[in-house]
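Blinded run. Sample ID left blank on purpose so nobody reads anything into the name before looking at the predicted structure. Input follows.
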Amino acid sequence: MKILLTGATGYIGKRLLPVLVNKGHFVYCCVRDKNRFHPPESLKEHIEILELDFLNESSLLNIPIDIDAAYYLMHSMASAQHYDTLELKSASNFRLAVNKTAAKHVIYLGGIVNDTDLSKHLFSRKIVELELFKGSYQFTSLRAGIIIGSGSASFEIIRDLTEKLPIMVAPKWLNTKCQPIAVRDVISFLSECLMNSRTFGKNFDIGGSTILTYKEMLLGYAKVRGLKRRIVTLPFMTPKLSSYWLFFITSTSYKLASALVDSMKVEVVCRKSNINELLGIEPLSYEKALKRTFKKIQDQQVLSSWKDAVISSRKNLKVSDFIQVPVHGCYIDKRSRKIKNIHTTIDKIWKIGGNTGWYFGDFLWEIRGLIDKMFGGVGLRRGRTHDFEINTGDALDFWRVIYASKEEGRLLLFAEMKLPGEAWLEFKIINNRLWQTATFRPKGITARLYWYSLYPIHLIIFNGMIRKLTA
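Blinded prediction complete.
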């Protein structure tokens, strides 16, 4: 079959794609920016990339007429102030576009919405489902709560909280019940629903075999990791304080933290249904999902991460817009050094950031990351998805990868930390020399003062960094 896959660069879409191809389907991958999509070579002859924006109706004319089915996996949680309005418009445009095709089945992944008092985020998910249901195709909605898997936002938050805090003074919403599900099982439900007539015109809650409070999830993580943790819940911690608590301790953005806190006050437990028996799926328990996740991380098999979505940053950028580094009106710190071993230098560059750090003055980078967090930026805690692989579009601490080519010996990063301007950091190897260039395009007088005030620190950091990279 020919399948239209929206959200192909997203956390779920990246994992569903190889499963669909392995089942013999041809997949049209919908992306907003082709430069951020890096499918494995083994998949390329079985897919076609479509650069579309579902908020722009004219771009949807490229959707093939002869598709058999489609997946709606797009989600703009907290990416804009009025994300609920944008999500509804996107769903409406998708419905109208797919109505013009031969598609017989559309599958949607939303959230569990059984509570009468829904958060803005969950209510938006419900409205999107109702909009998609109006289509001329058969429709199936799968509703999930917390998704546990390597690189998922939920797992990263649980890991950050439990690993960093031996004693937690936490909000009362930690006593809210939820039914977490392993990402493996989410992918199984999505793939097994395809063209299954017994799922047509229905919605199903999907969850793991364990119902827990968020507090029990944190303590369950600690148990699997062999950690002793104590959690005290306070009844008077406001949603705003709760959001700041999540934001400062974990790798999440403030907007995402706010949306999560709002949703975590709502119980997300599955209604009874026959979906497991219908599709022959036996979901994992929370403990088994955690153990499987740790195995994937240890084996360097993290296929996708929520942090690589551009909405995890402060900019909804298209990476190709920033590949040409400006010169006019910019402050530039450019230095070069002869390389002792070109392969060693490239390996070092490709491991930069995350657990490796920045090779020189890491405590200064950490202070900058903390300052960024204090002003609502992404900070350093996003880290990186892989320890030794870098692709265009990846998040790398408080940078975004704009261009990455080992063959050319070039890595270009664009700053996503809070700045009074725009900044790039580039590493380029030419004639056995490493050229390291930091470029800052200021906006206003304050930005110029910012550059000059940090100039002495930049001298120390950038000189130390290139020395380490070329050694």
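Unblinding after everyone has recorded impressions. Residues 2-307 form a domain with the Rossmann fold fold (CATH 3.40.50.720).
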